[in-house]
Amino acid sequence: xxxTPLHQSHLDLSAKMGEFAGYDMPLxxxxxxxKEHEWVRDHAGLFDVSHMGQIAIKGKGMQDLLQRLTPxxxxxxxxxxxxxxxxxxxxxxxxxxxxxxxxGDDDFHMVINAGCxxxxxxxxxxxxxxxxxxxxxxxxxxxxxxxxxxxAVMRDVLGIDLSDVPYMGLWFQDYTMFVSRLGYTGEDGFxxxxxxxxxxxxxxxxxxxxxxxxxGLAARDSLRxxxxxxLYGHDIDxxxxxxxxxxxxxxxxxxxxxxxxxxRKRVGIVLTDKGVAREGSIVKxxxxxxxxxLTSGGFSPSLKQSIGQTYLPLGYAAPETEINVDVxxxxxxxxxxxxxxxxxxxxxxxx
Amino acid sequence: MTVKFTKDHEWVKLDGEGIAVIGITEYAxxxxxxxxxxxxxxxxxxxxxxxxxxxxESVKTAAEVYTPVTGEVVEVNEALETDFxxxxxxxxxxIAKFSMTNVDELKGLMDEAAYQDYLxxxx
Lengths: 351, 123
Fold this sequence. Notes:
The complex is a heterodimer. Chain A is of the alpha+beta class. Chain A has a domain of 75 residues: Elongation Factor Tu (Ef-tu), domain 3, CATH 2.40.30.110. Chain A is globular. Chain B contains two helices and nine strands; from the N terminus they run E-E-E-H-E-E-E-E-E-E-H. Chain B is globular, with a radius of gyration of 13 Å. Classes of the chains: A alpha+beta, B alpha+beta. Chains A and B meet through helix 2 of A and strand 4 of B.
């Protein structure tokens, strides 16, 4: 199995390890999933996300290239700003979801999902012209610090003042450290990219602060689920279009117009009775018809309820629509709920 | 009172005339992590030895609880539905009580010492 440069650190912390996208990754540490989740919502959590792919494309005509690869517009994206988007194939299916950062007019950096690296890179390369230079930063690590105390920790521990960096903004130093104000938790926070040989030092430094605890992939999943974020391979994949996935907001008009009108939509659901419904549970209408399958699902530590995502025919997709979820043969009452399930607290959120 | 253990980490206590009291061990609770829901059986339902009669859900996973004896559920511990910590209690942490049809089914189970030895092999 593949490992990240922080693998030994996880073992030293007695993390429960498990396979994710071909990597041996920490699922949870000594706090346990529930408390790790709450720690991120209350303080600052440290995540090793070095399994994700960091790539860059430089060259002429980057706008055109990016508009071919994604359905988004990059015309208004400022330098040192990041945009969430998707890579789509010729059938409008989603190849991956990713973050694209504009480092310069002809220079864009991207963070792609671990499990999609090979196919993304192959797809992107097949779309490049000789004018483009492609780089895969295989020897760079990615560490996320997420939570309301993240900014203060960055200031006190690393001496970096990020108070002026907006949400989706980039700060960097001497090309040895790139800090983006974004994440996968709905909290304020940062993703920090450093060369592999600097990762352990940074990890240990940040963990030395009492406001910081290491957080595993299990809590990362429940945190993102509360925000209604997609997990590639579960909530979105090559069989879903961005419109079906309710990601129309990342699309430019011409791309939107070229897609078929969806007949189903990704929605959030919440169980209105006791129980936990997980990925794979069948969603049924009140008159017993199978109308969907949970693509994600689990207990929300913040809401103390079971929440999930599914694709439902448009007739059932309106918020408050009452449905049932079949959990081991027991029909649990549930309803469609608009996402995010919890208000994001990212920098500038709600402004 | 003798306590017996299963390889699936249930414990069983004999309570008076042919009544088996069943719960899950500390090991099982630790492996599951933070509990969020318990699906209890209905009183009056009959289960065969080896059947699952309850489900314990944690943040991480759902675990079925199996009965090591054949019998009818005569009582369930409804207090667990609101207080998962109760599972840890040696006296109040039981899940259900079964009226056994064959007391001999208990014979194949492990005693405390054998279970502790067994735990060393699964860790």
